[in-house]
Amino acid sequence: MGRSSGREVTHGPVTSPDMLQLLDLAGIYFRAFHGVPASTVGPDGRPVNAIRGTLDIVRRVILDGRPTRVVACLDLDWRPAWRVELIPTYKTHRVAESDNSQPLLDGGTAVEQVPDELAPQIPVLLEVLSAVGIAIAGAPGFEADDVIGTLAARERRDPVEVVTGDRDLFQLARDEPTPVRVRYIGAGMSKVQVLDTAGVAAKHGIPAGRYPDFAALRGDPSDGLPGVPGVGDKTAAGLVNSFGSIESLVAALVDPSSSMTPSQRAKLTPALAYLRVAPKVVRVATDAGVTITPSGDGRLPGTPVDPDRLVELAEQYGLHSPVARLIDALGRA
């Protein structure tokens, strides 16, 4: 997964003297887990496919993006209660179940369904990244998307690049006060797209900042968002361009004198309750209480910060090659 002969599709300027790269780490390690054969094991026979794949993806995006700062962002709460309270179906299909089909709970929070072979790899991956010197960030009660959204909103110094396979993060693209673009890896590392606001608009026919409204109308089965029955991409884009936000659409829907057509009213009225709450669920939070470890601005080191521990981990888990490739990227970024 580290090398590709595929063409990177780019919209807008890509290079900058300094840049903050925010990694959607959970999305990346799930992608790596499913993209690298499970037969990829360490010296003790335990799977290391997610670790190896993630390290190669991180290496690749560092070399391609040339960031000076990198922060790997975590889900400390993959299904926040405040989102579930608004839309109970939110990510329901991802909840792990016990033998009697009841959701497993951990401190009152539903446990995400994670493959048995993946779960033990995550702590090792985090330790490797820490030994390399890549900062890790999270926020209690928030998803990785919200961590990324908060750090992007805070940034006033350098351009930001969000690395993700989640289209919901298209909403973060902006031109000012500091530009934010999205390095979208959802179609695979051979078909990477780097999208600024113009790129998001060209891809979906809507302003980048209106992507949450578009997604809420269309729905997203991967997140358990029902959407509005009968509203697909084209209709959703048309509604967004006509009314702007869902709030404006709802205001028009409840106003008999508005310009909304009878057919639009007929389609949207049954979904009114959903439309009142969906924007808050879909919009990425920008005020999460983010903690970055180690504290600082995520400056990417030229060499590993804990080389001895990195050697130990590489030896223990058979990670010499991907670790060496990542270290090489540090010196070239």
From TrEMBL:
Stored CDD domains: H3TH_53EXO, PIN_53EXO
The keyword Hydrolase belongs to this UniProt entry's keyword annotation: yes
Name of the protein in question: 5'-3' exonuclease
InterPro entries per UniProt: 5-3_exonucl_a-hlix_arch_N (IPR020046), 5-3_exonuclease (IPR002421), 5-3_exonuclease_C_sf (IPR036279), DNA_polI_H3TH (IPR020045), FEN (IPR038969), HhH2 (IPR008918), PIN-like_dom_sf (IPR029060)
GO biological process, one term: DNA replication, Okazaki fragment processing
Record-linked Pfam families: 5_3_exonuc, 5_3_exonuc_N
Organism: Nakamurella panacisegetis
Annotated ranges, domain 5'-3' exonuclease: 16-301
Keyword annotations from UniProtKB, A to Z: DNA-binding, Exonuclease, Hydrolase, Nuclease
Function: 5'-3' exonuclease acting preferentially on double-stranded DNA.
GO molecular function: 5'-3' exonuclease activity; 5'-flap endonuclease activity; DNA binding
